[in-house]
Amino acid sequence: MHSQSMAQSSNAALKSGWLRLDPVLTIATAQLFGTSLWFSANSAADDLARTWGLTAANIGMLTAAVQSGFILGTLVFAVFGLADRFSASRIFWFIEEFRGRLRGF
What we know:
- The protein is mainly α.
- The protein has seven helices and no strands.
- The protein has one domain (2-103).
C-alpha cells in the first residue's frame, strides 16, 4: 500500500508541474554538457604543448581530430542504429577489444 501512495503523490507532483522540466531547457542542458567534451583538447593544450612540444597549429589539429572523432562516431552509431540494437556495455566491450587488438594487447 505504501508504494501505491508514493506513486499517487509523485503523479500529483508531476501534474502540478512541481517536477516537470521544460523539455527545451533539458535538451539544451544535455547538449551543453555533451558537447563540452569536444573541447577537452583545449583544456589540456598548455600541458600538451609543453610535454610533447606541440605548436599552436598542432593543438588546432588535435582539437579538430577530437571533434571529428565525436562526429564520425555519432554518425556511425546513428546510421547503423547500434545503440538500439546492442547494450552499451556490449558496445563498449567490443570497441575496447578492437582497440586492444590494434595495439597488440
